[in-house]
């Protein structure tokens, strides 16, 4: 007889929790969802909006095992993840196992530590039906939008396309940004830089032109610049004003899901999906020498910056012992009003477990991400960095030049963590006095042009989605993964670029479903889901208010919209079979060349992408290829015959070549894996053909 049966979502989490529960307790995993909407049909009654859930295919044996364990257990605790999705999984488990959702069967913990797990088991509650309703509302709405709009795309554009409420808005943001870039007209502007030196110390420092007689002046023409330089030919330069001060820089709050994804992308070059996968492993548990399976971080899907008093005290102990009392500051961070404050911020579960102390027990990626989370959390409870600042105004014939500098006086939180843009040392400005003359070393003008807004990266897209209230922490990674998989966008280095297909689909959706595929509507629906979660709105009412006008729009578009012809990019490669110039299309494995005469001519072949920078080693053409995980790498066309150049990073013209052994080994391993798999597939195909031939003979 089982005393306590605890059902969690993953085996790793189950292994970690097992060691905290003694006696006849048993911990098992549901492996995520066990019931869902069917894939083969809508699965929603469009009159009542009741979802038609079915057991997920392939989980029959798991469900039977769970039923058997539940039957043998005195008490069953549903300990799925502490968010809306986890609440819904618990609700489905209760249905499958015949457990009353109003019984105290639900337990949650924000971190997988002995104290948190035992506290959760000691304080069970009923399943929060408001949270499950909020999850159902999102699931049903997304199913209706996807299953109603996607067939229109199949009919009017081509088969295999899909639309989604959040994913389509993400594509729209990327396409809109690309349109901004294409329409951008650069504007000319000039800077005048003056280098001077202190006559006493001979220390040189740089000053920038700001205006004349205390008034700001912007320079847009060479003639204006030439006139100023001519006026300054015999000028003497004097110190007009000096302002000294102090500047404090405060630490950032501990991570939320969004800020973790952004920082991991910027600092570790992690894709959003990879960040969440590595974080999941740290949360569920890592095997440590003396502790066994140990959860290292708190729950990684959160938009709260709150931390517990226990964590605050643990941080204080580590900071004061390692750095000193003056480095500690008890800080509280305000969570955004629209955030769901159910969980703490992402922080280390055990602050005493420093990253370097457990490095040998972690993979390289786990160590990097854990260190990032650990240091950000520790920094969030540390004193501000203090800078001494100096601002010097130099006058030359009435023209103003300004020099600014700052020196780090007290490191504070910078001892453990700093943002990319933070620098510890700035322009060194010597001790000067008002009225003293400085020596001109050189003066030069520099022409520049305004630049278009940058393309989105995964990090900046997540930031924008969060700022505009589109989606929730749990949706960012799957959204980006989906639009990449659909070939609506692709990655160039770290930038997200819309494909021709993405542009066509986006334009069609905006023109015909603009009331649904837009930022404002998507953000408004998130607010509606929040109201459902709070118990202030009935979820079916939310769906009904959306569906009634939406149904009419779909019917109208289906009747009136003509077929949209996809315009493919024409290559400079002629078709060997019919002579037409081949076009670039997207397939399962990326771009390929196809004859535009399809179906009369079915010729197709791989597209070899090249760049306009020669191989840094031999000067030949460099090709762009992709790993199985869709990551670009750069390889010489002569590899491996006469040149072994291969790199993750795109070579730059004139850049000195540096051998990247790690990249070379990693890419070569990836290539070997792909070769082995393709060999297996080929042999498998041959075997199948042999069997078919035998059957035919019989």
Quick tags:
single chain, 698 residues, alpha+beta, six-stranded antiparallel beta barrel, four-stranded antiparallel β-sheet, 24 strands
Describe the structure in your own words.
By secondary structure, this protein is of the alpha+beta class. The chain is 38% helix and 20% strand. It has 17 helices and 24 strands. Helix 3 packs across helix 5 (129-156), helix 6 packs across helix 13 (476-485) and helix 8 packs antiparallel against helix 12 (458-467). The protein starts with a strand and ends with a helix. The relative contact order is 0.10. The model has no long low-confidence stretch (mean pLDDT 88).
Question: What does this entry show, briefly?
Answer:
This protein is an alpha+beta fold and 698 residues long. The protein is built from 17 helices and 24 strands. The two termini are 56 Å apart.
Q: What do the pLDDT scores average to?
A: 88
**Could you name the ranges where pLDDT drops below 50 across 5 or more consecutive residues?**
none
CA radius of gyration is 31 Å
Question: Could you state the oligomeric state of the chains shown?
Answer: single chain
Order of the strands making up the biggest sheet: 6-7-13-12-9-14
Shape: globular
Strand content: 15-25%
**Number of DSSP helices?**
17
* Largest sheet entry: 6 strands, antiparallel, barrel
Distance between the termini: 56 Å
Helix residue percentage: 25-40%
What structural category characterises the helix and strand content? alpha+beta
Q: What is the count of β-strands?
A: 24
Q: How is the topology of this model organized?
A:
Layout: E1 2-8, H1 11-18, E2 26-29, E3 35-36, E4 54-55, H2 60-72, E5 73-78, H3 84-97, H4 114-122, H5 129-156, H6 165-183, E6 188-198, E7 204-212, E8 215-216, H7 222-231, E9 237-249, H8 257-268, H9 272-284, E10 286-288, E11 292-294, H10 309-322, H11 364-380, E12 385-396, E13 399-410, E14 437-449, H12 458-467, H13 476-485, E15 489-492, E16 495-498, H14 500-513, H15 519-533, H16 539-560, E17 569-574, E18 581-587, E19 590-594, E20 604-606, E21 609-610, E22 622-626, E23 632-636, E24 646-647, H17 661-697
Parallel strand pairs: 1-2, 1-5
Antiparallel strand pairs: 3-4, 6-7, 6-14, 7-8, 7-13, 9-12, 9-14, 10-11, 12-13, 15-16, 17-18, 18-19, 19-20, 21-22, 22-23, 23-24
Helix pairs in contact: 3-5, 5-15, 5-16, 6-13, 6-14, 8-11, 8-12, 9-11
